């Protein structure tokens, strides 16, 4: 139904000096994201001491973060140094799907990690049977399937919209709100329906996580190793807040663009994936000890 074959992406800024600076910043951030998340995934998969379900799930969270950032960052960096910032219609739809696929999978995986946290604290004697390695593997597959379903629903809506030009996206990526503003049809009915797919997912998931934390924190009042459990909870809560606060701002509202949207989206898609490995390693004594031993084995003292 669309009469245009490509979109023009305005990007973060039109200032050449700022574009060069932003390219350098995003390049460093992206390299740290890939190396940090890859390090966590490889370490967990090769060190037998990190064989518990929480680390198994963390390795997949790290992989999702790497793919999530890779669906946005390379195109963003290319546009910062390119004179003609365009993206094809199919490329734009692919980016929308990839973004929501990995974001949806991460949301479900965060729920699974909360369930594992609940089992470890509230049901310690039954933890290994309630959430065993096969169960974790199945839940990871479910997270991927639900993420695929979420991204697929977005695409089913978007590809049916008529885009009749000029096709200028006032953003650095293809996403729901910038694209809905370009559709040449009345969006008063369809717009809220499309946004409800992402907005309701954020709201429902965040409500479930808050309820889970209430139960976990109540059980910690009588927990023997309260400090260690609180440290684990703090890491997970921090990651959840960093992910859901920007997500809620972008999708739990009417489909209208605001000037701050670009900064919030950068934080959600670029900054959060680089913070997650830092949060989980710096606040996890077991993970830090394993990484120290690995470093010393690779760089033995003379």
TrEMBL record:
<dbReference type="GO" id="GO:0005886">
    <property type="term" value="C:plasma membrane"/>
</dbReference>
<dbReference type="Pfam" id="PF13853">
    <property type="entry name" value="7tm_4"/>
</dbReference>
<feature type="transmembrane region" description="Helical">
    <location>
        <begin position="54"/>
        <end position="77"/>
    </location>
</feature>
<dbReference type="InterPro" id="IPR017452">
    <property type="entry name" value="GPCR_Rhodpsn_7TM"/>
</dbReference>
<feature type="transmembrane region" description="Helical">
    <location>
        <begin position="20"/>
        <end position="42"/>
    </location>
</feature>
<feature type="transmembrane region" description="Helical">
    <location>
        <begin position="97"/>
        <end position="118"/>
    </location>
</feature>
<feature type="domain" description="G-protein coupled receptors family 1 profile">
    <location>
        <begin position="36"/>
        <end position="280"/>
    </location>
</feature>
<dbReference type="GO" id="GO:0004930">
    <property type="term" value="F:G protein-coupled receptor activity"/>
</dbReference>
<feature type="transmembrane region" description="Helical">
    <location>
        <begin position="130"/>
        <end position="153"/>
    </location>
</feature>
<keyword id="KW-0552">Olfaction</keyword>
<dbReference type="InterPro" id="IPR000725">
    <property type="entry name" value="Olfact_rcpt"/>
</dbReference>
<feature type="transmembrane region" description="Helical">
    <location>
        <begin position="194"/>
        <end position="217"/>
    </location>
</feature>
<dbReference type="InterPro" id="IPR050427">
    <property type="entry name" value="Olfactory_Receptors"/>
</dbReference>
<keyword id="KW-0716">Sensory transduction</keyword>
<keyword id="KW-1133">Transmembrane helix</keyword>
<dbReference type="GO" id="GO:0004984">
    <property type="term" value="F:olfactory receptor activity"/>
</dbReference>
<keyword id="KW-0472">Membrane</keyword>
<keyword id="KW-0812">Transmembrane</keyword>
<feature type="transmembrane region" description="Helical">
    <location>
        <begin position="229"/>
        <end position="251"/>
    </location>
</feature>
<comment type="function">
    <text>Putative odorant or sperm cell receptor.</text>
</comment>
<feature type="transmembrane region" description="Helical">
    <location>
        <begin position="263"/>
        <end position="282"/>
    </location>
</feature>
<keyword id="KW-0675">Receptor</keyword>
<keyword id="KW-0297">G-protein coupled receptor</keyword>
<dbReference type="InterPro" id="IPR000276">
    <property type="entry name" value="GPCR_Rhodpsn"/>
</dbReference>
<keyword id="KW-0807">Transducer</keyword>
<protein>
    <recommendedName>
        <fullName>G-protein coupled receptors family 1 profile domain-containing protein</fullName>
    </recommendedName>
</protein>
């Amino acid at each position: 139904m669309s009469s245009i074959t490509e979109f023009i992406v305005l990007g973060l800024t039109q200032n050449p000096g700022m574009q060069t600076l932003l390219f350098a910043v995003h390049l460093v951030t992206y390299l740290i994201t890939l190396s940090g998340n890859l390090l966590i995934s490889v370490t967990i998969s090769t060190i037998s001491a990190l064989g518990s379900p929480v680390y198994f799930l963390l390795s997949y969270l790290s992989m999702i973060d790497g793919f999530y950032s890779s669906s946005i960052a390379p195109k963003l960096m290319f546009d910062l140094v390119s004179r003609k910032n365009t993206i094809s219609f199919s490329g734009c739809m692919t980016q929308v799907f990839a973004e929501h696929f990995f974001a949806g999978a991460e949301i479900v995986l965060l729920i699974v990690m909360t369930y594992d946290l609940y089992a470890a604290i509230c049901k310690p004697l039954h933890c290994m049977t309630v959430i065993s390695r096969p169960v974790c593997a199945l839940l990871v597959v479910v997270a991927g399937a639900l993420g695929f379903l979420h991204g697929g629903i977005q695409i089913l809506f978007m590809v049916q919209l008529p885009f009749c030009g000029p096709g200028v996206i006032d953003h650095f990526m293809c996403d729901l709100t910038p694209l809905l503003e370009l559709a040449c049809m009345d969006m008063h009915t369809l717009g809220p329906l499309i946004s409800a797919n992402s907005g309701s997912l954020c709201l429902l998931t965040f409500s479930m996580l808050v309820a889970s934390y209430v139960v976990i924190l109540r059980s910690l009042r009588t927990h023997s190793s309260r400090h260690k459990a609180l440290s684990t909870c703090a890491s997970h809560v921090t990651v959840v807040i960093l992910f859901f606060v920007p997500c809620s701002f972008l999708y739990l509202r009417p489909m209208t663009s605001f000037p701050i949207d670009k900064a919030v989206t950068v934080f959600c898609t670029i900054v959060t994936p680089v913070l997650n490995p830092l949060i989980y390693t710096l606040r996890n004594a077991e993970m830090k000890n394993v990484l120290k031993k690995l470093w010393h084995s690779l760089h033995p003292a003379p």
